[in-house]
Amino acid sequence: MKKILNVLLVFVLVFTVSAGVLAAPNDADHDASEFECCYWHAYNDECLPAEGGYSDYYHYELARYRELPLFVPFSTTMRTYNRNNVNQSLYLFNGQQSSLFTVGMIRCRHTSGGTCPATFQFDSRLVDIMHHVRSHFGRAITITSGFRCPSHNTAVGGAANSNHRHGRAVDIQVAGVTPTQVVAFARTVGASADTYVGSTFAHLAVPVGAVTNFRPYAAAPPPPPTTYTVVFNANGGTGTTANQVISRNANVALRGNGFSRAGHTFM
């Protein structure tokens, strides 16, 4: 009888824990820390636990190839930067470095009064969205405002709890494109409801929690090299054979051997 009760108790505990893990993460009912324990799978309408083989990358691939709405835990989207590393590339959501945007473009424009922190955080989803905008319109982007420290945000008349203060907003201008057009498109790739049309700019923002239509930017792979360098090694022998540069897809004979070693034949 005691053994049966123990089994029942274990079943109740397992069921309770599982029910807690699979509860759907709703912004209104859950804080950001709870988002870290599971990954929202919109196709199956369930929350997948972090353990058991699931990962950010796994869920990213599901969303990318099956075009599912993507739930992104808040803690995984934020990247920390040093404001003095102006030439450092920003990170895309998938961990790749941006080929277009750097720290110097989005760091605080603080010039006077108070102290601007040496480091700040910026949401990688905004980098993806800006890449989408650049690719869609085929025009250069100018970032007029990115991260703002509290004193600079006050100096420019920003809202007390502006998304700029938390690294979750940018103001941009796209050459030859109206802010209205930019905002309309940005909302289709993950910009939140806080995105709006400014006087001369488009204000793009992302929330703390999920963006149901967020679409990661898939950067094109770099082109293959046009030439390759063949390095010859004596493998303990003597003599030299100069490196040989060969063009991609070329059919050429390798350079003649200049090495020697007793008891060995170089081909």
Radius of gyration: 27 Å
Specify the biggest β-sheet.
4 strands, antiparallel
Q: Assign a percent range to the helix content.
A: 25-40%
Order of helices and strands: HHEEHHEEEHEHEHEHEEEEEE
Total strands: the figure is 14
Count of discrete alpha- or pi-helical segments spanning 4 or more residues: 8
Mean pLDDT: 76
Return the structural class.
alpha+beta
N-to-C CA distance: 79 Å
Note poorly predicted spans.
2-72
Give the CA-based shape.
elongated
Q: How do the strands of the widest beta sheet line up side by side?
A: 7-8-10-9
Q: How much of the polypeptide forms β-strand, as a percent range? A: 15-25%
Architecture overview:
The structure is a single chain. Helix content is 27%, strand content 21%. It has helices at 2-21, 32-35, 56-66, 74-77, 103-106, 124-137, 150-155, 179-186, and strands spanning 38-41, 46-49, 78-82, 89-91, 97-102, 119-123, 141-145, 169-174, 196-197, 202-205, 227-230, 238-239, 244-247, 259-260. The strands form six sheets. Strands 7-8-10-9 form a four-stranded antiparallel sheet. A hairpin with a 4-residue loop joins β9 and β10 (202-205). The model is unreliable at 2-72 (pLDDT under 50).
Briefly, what is this?
The protein is an alpha+beta fold and 267 residues long.
